[in-house]
């Protein structure tokens, strides 16, 4: 998993060579803490086909606002610089895999 900020978002997410799943999260968010281990598992399993990035929405509100992120966690999948899928709230691993599969 990589960490992105407002300064690195365009380069590491929008200009990435493959799909990137961005986890918009906040320190105060219990569901964000619940989903973190699942995202680490997905990174280990899908790391050759998918980049998983973490962005603290409270510390980078301009990026969260740009993509209409109103709640945490929000998982947004980018492909070729465009949003291709978005999920709000903590989801079980099987749900995340099913949502990601068509885009990998």
From TrEMBL:
Q: What SUPFAM superfamilies does the record point to? A: Thioredoxin-like (SSF52833)
Q: Which GO terms describe its biological process?
A: cell redox homeostasis
Q: Which UniProt keywords apply?
A: Disulfide bond, Electron transport, Redox-active center, Transport
Q: Name one GO cellular component term.
A: cytosol
Q: Which PROSITE patterns match?
A: THIOREDOXIN_1, THIOREDOXIN_2
Site feature (Deprotonates C-terminal active site Cys) residues: 23
Cystine pairs annotated here are 29-32
User: What top-level branch of life does the organism fall under?
Assistant: Bacteria
Domain annotation Thioredoxin: ranges: 1-104
* Catalytic machinery residues: 29 (nucleophile), 32 (nucleophile)
Q: Where is this site: Contributes to redox potential value?
A: 30-31
- GO molecular function (one): protein-disulfide reductase activity
Q: Name the Pfam families on file.
A: Thioredoxin
> Which Gene3D superfamilies does this entry report, sorted A to Z?
Glutaredoxin
- PANTHER family the UniProt entry points to: GEO12009P1
Q: What does the sequence similarity comment in the record state about its family?
A: Belongs to the thioredoxin family.
Report the protein name in the record.
Answer: Thioredoxin
Name its species.
Answer: Actinomadura verrucosospora
């Amino acid at each position: 998993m990589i960490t992105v900020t407002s300064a690195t978002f365009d380069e590491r997410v929008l200009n990435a060579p493959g799909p990137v799943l961005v986890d918009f999260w906040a320190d105060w968010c219990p569901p964000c803490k619940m989903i973190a281990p699942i995202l680490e598992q997905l990174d280990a399993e899908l790391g050759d086909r998918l980049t998983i990035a973490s962005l603290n929405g409270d510390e980078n509100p301009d990026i969260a606002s740009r993509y209409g992120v109103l709640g945490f966690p929000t998982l947004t999948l980018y492909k070729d610089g465009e949003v291709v899928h978005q999920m709000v709230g903590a989801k079980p691993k099987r749900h995340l895999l099913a949502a990601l599969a068509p885009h990998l």
